[in-house]
Design a protein that fits this description.
The protein is an alpha/beta fold and about 350 residues long. About 25% of the residues lie in helices and about 30% in strands. Strands 3, 5, 6, 9, 10, 17 and 18 form a seven-stranded mixed β-sheet that branches. Strands 13-12-11-14-15-16 form a six-stranded parallel β-sheet, sandwiched between helices. It has a three-stranded antiparallel β-sheet with strand order 2-1-4. Helix 4 crosses helix 5 and helix 4 packs across helix 10. The two termini are about 15 Å apart. The relative contact order is 0.16. Bound molecules: zinc ion (2 copies). One zinc ion binds next to helix 2.
């Protein structure tokens, strides 16, 4: 088969590569679409891989073409999305169903062969079947949806309250939609970009607030009658939105940090005291897995993509490129700000 092989730093070549076999319990997937994740950029451009040569790719969809002995959950011809985590299944966290917290995991496309190839082999439980009415492109976008939904579950979400989603990126858009699907009085998305705020409205947000406007906090609190938000989701990982989360929370609120910080974070004593005075609960969220593996995050994404209630905006795909142009695709990330949205590598028939 052919694969986009990372041979050295900044050196991706489309080469003949050993075709993987469907061993017992495994399924062989003919890859149709494979997304380039933010985490792949340092792997290719800054010597960030575990070893050379390696085939990356962990956000993918395709068709099952072969099943190994004992496989019962999926069959040849199924359209599947791949869950990339391979937890050890033995440690305390795995035994408790907290697969995202496993420390002895492997991972498709970073520790073993990924989906930037004609074929990839994965355990049957990592293959999530989705309806043929859902495109392969959308099928490669399961992960952000599952990450958002994991955060919603982590935050002990119940419908009926006011919900604030900080950050209108892909994760934020999915978080907003999940909050609506499970019932919310109102869901409000906060961002500084007009395009993202418009998209949030288009995808169903009840309000979209531009936080670069001076009186935005007043507007935000007015929506809730001055009481604040019962559920706050931080999805941007930016210092101002992380601070904002503490301010927007209502008394006894649930606050969840899905975004991860990239800079030092400071709170004034008054800002931090919000947590004491409001007695809100603060939690984090990591990846997107639950029991039974890979979890309801994946199963519900397949379900709500098929019903159309969970929407994916095709505008968030920046470019689709054939797999043999993987080198060119990664090189686009050398220019800061050039790539706006998802880059998908596709295998045409
Ligand atoms: Zn990723
Ligand atoms: Zn484990």
């Amino acid at each position: 088969m052919k694969a986009a092989v990372v041979c050295a730093n900044e050196d991706v070549r489309y080469l003949d590569y050993e075709e993987p076999k469907a061993e017992p319990g495994m399924v062989k997937v003919k890859v149709k679409a494979s997304g380039i994740c933010g985490s792949d950029i340092p792997r290719v451009l800054h010597n960030g891989v575990h070893f050379y040569p390696i085939v990356l790719g962990h956000e993918f969809s395709g068709d099952v073409v072969e099943t190994g002995e004992g496989v019962t959950k999926v069959k040849v011809g199924d359209r599947v999305s791949g869950a990339p985590l391979l937890p050890c299944m033995k440690c305390d966290d795995c035994q408790n169903g907290n697969f995202s917290l496993c420390k002895k995991y492997s991972f498709i496309g970073s520790r073993q062969q990924g989906s930037n190839a004609d074929y990839v082999v994965i355990p049957e439980q990592n293959a999530v079947v989705f309806d043929k009415s859902v495109s392969y492109e959308q099928g490669a976008m399961f992960e952000p949806s599952t990450v958002a939904l994991h955060g919603v579950f982590q935050n002990d979400y119940k419908g009926g309250g006011y919900v604030a989603v900080l950050g209108g990126g892909t994760i934020g858009m999915f978080t907003m939609q999940w909050a609506k699907i499970f019932g919310a009085k109102k869901v409000v998305v906060f961002d500084i970009s007009k395009e993202r705020l418009n998209l949030a409205k288009k995808l169903g947000a009840d309000a979209a607030i531009n936080t670069s406007v001076e009186n935005y906090m007043e507007k935000a609190m007015d929506i809730t009658g001055g009481k604040g938000y019962s559920y706050v989701f931080e999805t941007a990982g930016q210092v101002p939105t992380m601070q904002m989360a503490f301010e927007l929370a209502a008394n006894k609120a649930h606050v969840c940090f899905i975004g991860t910080p990239h800079a030092d974070l400071t709170f004034t004593p008054a800002m931090w005291e919000n947590m004491n005075r409001k007695e809100f609960k603060l939690t984090g969220s990591w990846m997107s897995y639950s029991a039974p593996f890979p979890g309801r995050e994946w199963e519900l994404t397949a379900h709500y993509f098929a019903t159309g209630q969970l929407k994916f905006d095709p505008g968030s795909i920046y470019k689709k490129m054939p797999m043999n142009q993987a080198q060119e695709a990664f090189q686009m990330f050398q220019k800061p700000g050039l790539v706006k949205g998802k880059v998908l590598l596709v295998n045409e028939d």
